[in-house]
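Sequence, please.
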């Protein structure tokens, strides 16, 4: 996930301004422009229910009188504004003269960038402007060639999301680089989230030489391949039910020169562990938050009889979402006739819905 900006430093300066409600913003901007009072060199600011419009100077009494007839409820102020750049540095800078002012506050604040593809969530109120937003994202981010809008929720068991092309090439297969690894993937055919970049690295750095790792919902291999690339002596079994994920996983193992360390297995994790991987793992990664609790017993079966590490990802509700997730995990481990020796790490990762969080728990199981 990246914030939509150019990274360029922009100067700020104080100027006279006109504050109006968002619903009156369009009329106010048009009037100030018509009387040549609008300062086009400064960015309009959005503040809660108002927009703050920079003007070239304090209006005269005559101009204020004319404004009172044209603009409903305004305030004259002095405010600090950011100077515009020749090349727009943010989505807001690109679209502030194209969209109605009351919609500017709803613009996406961040996007997911996977290689040359940007994936953005368009709020309902901006739906009819999605093409303009897509073109603006291309303009701000020169390395992006495709902009896709999320058009539905992630579905299970393949964890795919419907995407709509709103700008650029209608192409979702791309190369993505992360932590020194390279991954080929197709966002319409496989699950992938750049927001898990920190987790990929955090887990990989815990794995030691000689370990056997089972990655139960491996996708295209961002956990598995990074682990294999870091260590000389490691064996990773990467399972996924999506045939496209396993195909890309095999290709990515070749791209990263870890083919002998990573074994991709197509199929249901429960069945695969039962038939091939029971009792072999020093560590199991469970990155399937929507259904992870159903597979706790399978993870316990995959771990060695002497014990091992579980990396558990799940969704949990308020209040006390982390405590709730820990309690639920402990109960499911007990049902599998094993127990938590100690918690190694637990954290709220991010909110996913009102009163819902994604959580991660690392636990040593015996």
């Amino acid at each position: 996930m990246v914030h939509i900006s150019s990274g360029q430093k922009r100067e700020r300066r104080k100027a006279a301004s006109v504050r109006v409600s968002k619903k009156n913003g369009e009329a106010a901007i048009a009037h100030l422009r018509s009387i040549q009072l609008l300062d086009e060199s400064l960015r309009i600011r959005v503040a809660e229910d108002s927009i703050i419009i920079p003007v070239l100077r304090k209006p005269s009494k005559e101009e204020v009188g004319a404004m009172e007839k044209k603009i409903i409820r305004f305030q004259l102020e002095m405010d600090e504004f950011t100077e515009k750049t020749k090349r727009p540095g943010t989505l807001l800078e690109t679209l502030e003269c194209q969209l109605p002012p009351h919609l500017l506050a709803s613009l996406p604040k961040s996007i997911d960038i996977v290689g040359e593809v940007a994936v953005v969530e368009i709020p309902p109120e901006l739906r009819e402007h999605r093409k303009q937003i897509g073109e603006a994202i291309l303009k701000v981010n020169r390395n992006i060639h495709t902009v896709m809008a999320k058009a539905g929720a992630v579905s299970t068991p393949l964890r795919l999301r419907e995407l709509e092309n709103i700008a650029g090439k209608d192409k979702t297969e791309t190369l993505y680089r992360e932590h020194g690894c390279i991954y080929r993937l197709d966002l319409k055919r496989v699950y992938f989230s750049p927001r898990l970049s920190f987790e990929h690295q955090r887990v990989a750095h815990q794995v030691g030489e000689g370990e056997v790792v089972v990655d139960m919902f491996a996708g295209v291999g961002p956990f598995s391949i990074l682990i294999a690339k870091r260590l000389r002596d490691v064996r990773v079994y990467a399972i996924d039910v999506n045939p496209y994920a396993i195909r890309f996983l095999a290709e990515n193992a070749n791209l990263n020169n870890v083919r002998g360390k990573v074994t991709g297995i197509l199929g249901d994790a429960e069945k695969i562990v039962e038939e091939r991987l029971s009792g072999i793992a020093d560590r199991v990664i469970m990155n399937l938050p929507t259904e992870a609790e159903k597979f706790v017993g399978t993870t316990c079966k995959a771990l060695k009889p002497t014990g091992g590490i579980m990396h558990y990802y799940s969704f949990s509700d308020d209040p006390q979402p982390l405590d709730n997730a820990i309690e639920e995990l402990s109960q499911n481990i007990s049902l599998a006739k094993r127990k938590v020796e100690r918690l190694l790490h637990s954290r709220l990762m991010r909110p996913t819905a009102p009163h819902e969080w994604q959580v991660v728990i690392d636990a040593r199981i015996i």
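Residues 321-335 form the longest helix (15 residues).
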